[in-house]
Write a structure and sequence with these properties.
Largest sheet: 9 strands, mixed
CATH class of the largest domain: Alpha Beta
Shape: globular
Helix content: 10-25%
Radius of gyration: 26 Å
Length: 667
Amino acid sequence: MERKKVLILGIDGLDPRLTKKYIDEGRMPNTKKFLERGSAEIRYEMIGGQPTVTPPMWTTLATGASPRVHGITGYYRHNVERDILEYNFESTNCHAEQLWNVTAEAGIKTLVWHWPGSSWPPSSQSENLYVIDGTQPGGINVGTAQVEGDMLVLGNVKVQEVSFRSKAASDSRVPCFITGMETAEEEKEGDLNMMANRLVVKKNQRVTMDESEGVMNLSDTPMDMVSTPIRPASGWVNAPADALECTMLLAQGFIHRPCLILKNEQGIYDSLAIYKNKKSAEPIVVLAKDVFVQDIVDESIRHDEKIMVNRSMRLLEMAEDGSQFKLWVSASMDFNDDTVWSPKSLLKTVTENVGYPQPVCLAGGSDEMLISKCMRASWDHSAAWNAKGIKYMAREQGFGVIFSHFHNVDMQGHMLVQYLKKGSKLSPETCQKLFAEVYVQTDNYIGEFLELIDEGWTILIVSDHGQTTPEHDTDVFRLMSGGTCAVEMRKLGYTVLKKDENGNDIPEIDWSKTRAICSSYCHIFLNIKGRDPHGIVDPADQFELEEQIMTDLYGLRDEKTGHRYVALAMRNRDAALLGEGGPDSGDIIYYIAEGYTADHADSFSTINGACDTSVRSVFMAAGPGIKKNFLTERIIKHVDVTPTAAVLLNVRMPHQCEGAPVYQIFE
């Protein structure tokens, strides 16, 4: 086949079942146009691998290999100390060849745009390979350049003094949102030189031991809060006579910004002007009521030094008499941070021609205003920035293949999908409406790229998994998955905690009594003598202990329905049947039964959830070399994406590729 220009448009969390529903309802017209110009499976589905979570699946989509082969077997990588977990995004842990290394080797100028599965550090020295981030899923530069989190500023005439209150939920684990990553100094030298610096998270993650912890226990407002008094303006060089003033605190309260509350021509207070100081002739920004403003450049503090950052803001509310207001301030981004750009000159190319990498927002919880006007709006702007950047690279920088990823559905879904049936503080109908709007946002994003088809690009739209709403009202996902949860293993007696002087449990594992631990999504590790640092289980007893644990798992039942919680539990060697197992997996791997899963990562990749959700993946293709308006009955799998793209690009298959091209869709 003649070589095509290929764009892989990855959208994390995109569910084919909901996509089809919204296309049929007319909510996703751009996606419908894409399908009319291309091909897909009859239900737009792709069967994902196991486990249904970001790092292993994006690695599979890039290599054509299963997790057992490429070695990225979960969101977390297991430390030799089984209660310590490490994020599992690094390419240095991947044992399979990525397609972008093949294309670079073949002389194709190749761009990897925020691919959260074994893309960073770059694993090829080819001058044809360009890589931007991939160290975490949230957004470009979020892991390394984010300095502050989201904040609400509340002004009121009744407040006596300005105050700053840090996040009430600062230890809450927001799924897929990783910040505070830094370069490990001791690993700066090596075969991959400076660009292969290993990024580490400042704070180690421990296995969750309590039901109140875990990724499903999110605060309604995981944000900093500033309370500020509103008074008549005084001491300003140039302030209207009827202006009011307040103070904004930034950088955890270390930077003060005086603000003027201003009237419009009708004499109504409706805007907020933020200044560096009261002597400044011009404001940093003027915020009109209910207008989203991005790329506000100001200072922040990092490592005790002032830096320049970009933020977004929205003046959500303001009383007409100026007596109170509510202002949302986004996370701040150090726009000079080039830690995860290779070559580093790429950052300047992007910022000068596209704009600053955008902060993304997870604020909202059960506040419809914050969800719609802050969280979703920030992702709208992130979508526009990503689309502009990818198209600029495609048109102006001479790339022949682009591997891209966008995390809007998954990230916002974490805030909403578990509530689509039962509701939260918001009604189920409101939660469903808000999640449908995320799919409309995604359709707009897809629409940005339709014009590239006319310019000779072949586009593959893929996702790593969908997200499911639980059918039954149960906390099983908190107890048995939830990311890092060992609660059920404690109840069954396999994991034992140390006790304080009063006989109360403390959150530290007593390895002298612990026979097994569930330290990540659905992976159970036995504490084996001679293999593990604190092993107590005789290797001769491993088979029998595994049998006992699996029997106990199958015995876990929902008291209301009588149904079992676990669909399948199997030994490591048997997990090869599903592309799992091997030295990087647990001794036992299990999957939660349909109806009891929440979100993703804990189930088979084929299951449905309530409210028309599923955990299945999307595959669609359009452009040169692809049949138009064609649906195939062929079962398409994650491992098939890489060989399909390889055929379109006329390059060899990666060495460990296990899939096959989707021949049926080729012209």
